[in-house]
Amino acid sequence: MQSPSRRERMAVLGSAVDSGITHFDTARMYGLGMAEAELGAFVRTVGRDAVTIATKFGIDVGGAARRLARYQAPARALLRKAPALRRAVKRRQGPDTTARDYDSATAARSLDESLAALGVDYVDILFLHAPKPGDTVRDGELREFFDNAKQQGKIRAWGVSQDEGLEVDFAAAFAPEGVSQYRSDVLNPAPRPADLAFGVLNRPYTSLSAALSADQRLAAQWREALQLDPLAPGVLPKLIIGSSAAATGSPAILYSTTKPHRIAEAASAISSPLDAETLTRFLGLVAQFREGAVA
User: Fold this and answer.
1) Among 99, 141, 196, 294, fewest CB within 10 Å belongs to which?
2) Distance of CA 9 to the CA centre of its chain
3) Whole-prediction pTM value?
4) DSSP code of 69?
């Protein structure tokens, strides 16, 4: 939903399927509450059995934001043309400090709303959306709800998608059946491996590319060690994505972009990765970089 037009959004989703990516992750609050319906429109063009879908409950869009959702396309188009305005808007978006209560009533209502918005009979995974320390997770009643929802055919699996406060293991309450999904990357691996990792590219790419661009000696060291230029177009993303599963301990990673051609590049980093020796050397350089940053 970062793209202002449906044509662009459908092109991104279509490029994913064309590249062999068939798992899609969404949530009630994405796109100011409109992302699920948009994904559902795409799924109807490829067939429900061709994809798997994960959605989430626990964070919703308030009434005012939901009413504004229909106007987000021109707003996003304006922000795309005005980078300074876009940065200012992001600075004004402070962290959400409201404590949330994850209970079965909320989960049931949200799941039914998700199924209706997506236009499907079931989702493959239903996640608690980003619980954090201080939130209340009523795991006993939620386990019962998940079991019932699976028996009803509304979900196939469930789990926890956690963004912050990873020192608290919310997923443990739903083990061993629960699916874990954490924010994790080569520079900031989660304290525990997850079934799926998200946020694998943006933060490490921003940090590493900035450091290599600013330090010619460091860039030369990396070029010599890797026998390729990490600052050449497409090289650093391929290194990061190709090594993310090993670095995070997660067998699957999530990737997001608004550019169709980048979908194919990301897919190729997995399907046709750089050789194992190069990726091992890269992870060694990343470890040295992390140690230097900490020191």
Assistant:
1) 294
2) 16
3) 0.89
4) G
